[in-house]
Amino acid sequence: MGLNLEKNRQFQAVWAYSLFGTLVIITSLYIVNVLYGIENFSNGVSLPVFSLIPGTLVILSIWAITKSDTIKELPKKSLVFLTFSFTSWFLAEQIWNLYEHVLDIDPYPSIADFFYIAAPIFMFIGVMLYLKSTERKIRKRRILFASIISLVILVPSILATLEVGAEDEIFEILVALAYPLVDSILLVPVIITISFLISSRSNFFWIMILVGIMIMLSADTIFLFLVIEDAYVDGHPVDILFVSSYIIWSFMMFYLVRESKQTQEEENSETYKKFGTRNLEKYGVHLALIFINITVILFLWGSSQVMEIEQDEVSTFFFWFLIMMVVIFSSIVVLLNSRLNKTLLKRTVQLEKISDELIKAERFSAIGEVASRISHDIRNPLSNVKMSIELMKNSPPDTKITDKTINEKLEVASKNIERISHQVNDVLEFVKNRKLNKENIRVSAILNDTIESMQIPSNIRIKMSKSDISVFVDLFQLQIVFNNIILNAIQAIGKESGEILIKISEKNDRIIIKFKDSGPNIPEDVLNHIFETLVTTKQVGTGLGLVSCKTIIENHKGEITVENDPVIFTINLPKHEI
Questions:
Q1: Contact status, residue 182 vs residue 117, Cβ threshold 8 Å
Q2: Which residue spans within 188-305 are E strands per DSSP?
């Protein structure tokens, strides 16, 4: 545990320095370009940056989805919509690169505009799904505050857009207005979520995602006014903000994947060791695809050198675009393969558990048959001994035993025979597989019959709520359940004065019966296993009574649970036949 903690600290330190270093390098490149000019900056820096970083973000997002079962920071649906958002930005950037670096055109509106507008919408849905998953009540004051800030930014942007596009066509104006509108809509839940996270000081992942969103929205607003003033050129410092958002999101997705991977490795370490699949899964397909990627990259580079193709903007764009596509599709194959291997491993573990359960069931079946025979063999002579003792105790006065010591011994023998009979009955009920013979009957009637058939000590009172609720059950089997629970309560209370409260209620066509006793709590180490075979808190218990109760209730499509402080057994049954 200490070793894992130290590794986490080392990873977090390396991760933080890497994120900071990457942001500094990108920022420095753009500043140097603005101040001194970098030769062929557009093709040598801007093009690969806006291809590789968004592409990496998409790969990491898809990877995170494959790990979503072990990710606690956000719900899977929220992660899916975040991935849709990142993918939309990636596609928009590649289409923009195509127009800018290959076709040398600037169409408006274009397909790129569609993806640029769709990305904040997907992001909005993702943030809203996260807010919903937190189940926190959003105050109107926070909504009003977020809306006011959003409007303060929206109104000037709309006015400036309308002023510049007054002579444009209606569709062009609507597309132009869509940019600040979707950004403003996204800003509202972002501000609300930030206020939640700051007050709770939790969820580092979402804090950083929201920081990236705020940077992106700032970049969009600045970019809008630059376009209006016709002041934007490729390599403008505002691109630092766009790239910073992609970098922060990429690092956060990697952080998320790493955290989930570590959790999964801790859970599956024994399984990997047992089945010996870890190295095969980790290195097999991965190495093959890495080899293919290197081969393709070397082939593209070698072809350009041998054929002496002029390194114009067209060839540069397609060189980076092909590399990015090969890497993305290879990564998808790796992720799908990894997911398939994990699913296969999970199914293997499940099959092994089922196999173990079947072997265990067969053993119990064999033990049950033997136990049933032995119980039957014990039951008959035990009944004869019990009857003989009763006859001796109730014989006529002239033949009755008057010795007090002998009578006390007979009483002890009678109690011990009663105890053995109860254990034999537990065994027989456990191994029997009775067919349900259901009928509609009042719950209170079943309870009254059960209580009347039992010997209730004078120090214990049983109170039952008045109820005429009927239920469709097997009368005999439900009496076995009630008898077991009440008897356990009596034995738990012991010789102290106590009471057993039975409450009957109805909810949504379900009958709820609660047994509450004044006895001591069930030990915590036993509580979670109380309905398992051979688990008991009594020195002379078989550990089969409550197992039989659970089986009977589940055969009736119900459930039985137990809790402490105080001890309450709750039975939940369907009122009618299912």
A1: yes
A2: none
Q: What is the pLDDT of residues 527-571, one digit of tens each?
A: 777 777 665 655 445 556 777 788 888 888 899 898 888 889 999
* pTM over cut 0.90: no
Pairing outcome for strands 498-507 and 460-464:
parallel
One DSSP character per residue, 424-478 reads HHHHHHHH--PPP-EEEEEHHHHHHHHHHTS---TTEEEEE-----EEEEEHHHH
**Residue numbers of the domain that contains 451:** 434-574
Distance CA(302)–CA(294), nearest Å, equals: 12
**Residue at 306 is within a domain:** no
Contact status, residue 515 vs residue 553, Cβ threshold 8 Å: no
| Structure tokens that stand for 308 in this block | 């002496």
Q: Which residues contact 181 (CB under 8 A, 6 or more apart)?
A: 154, 158
What CATH number is given to the structural domain containing 501? 3.30.565.10
Of 273, 292, 307, which residue sits at a domain end? 273
> Structurally, how many domains does the chain consist of?
2
The reported pLDDT for the residue numbered 42 is 82
Q: Could you give the CA distance from residue 169 to residue 148 in angstroms, rounded to a whole number?
A: 30
Contact at 8 Å (CB) between 476 and 437? yes
Residue 334, in any domain of the structure: no
Count of CA atoms in the C-beta half-sphere (13 A) of 570: 12
Omega prior to 109 cis, within 30 of 0: yes
Cα 449 from Cα 479, distance rounded (Å): 8
Q: What is the number of alpha carbons within 13 Å of residue 304 lying toward its C-beta?
A: 15
pLDDT tens per residue across span 393-437: 666 655 555 566 666 666 666 666 665 665 566 555 555 555 677
d(CA 30, CA 238): 9
Is 50 exceeded by the pLDDT of residue 1?
Answer: no
Write down the pLDDT at residue 403.
64
Instruction: Report cis status (omega within 30 of 0) of the bond before 180.
Output: no
Name the phi and psi angles at 566, rounded to 5: -85, 180
Q: Largest alpha-carbon pair distance within the chain? A: 129
pLDDT at 512 over 70: yes
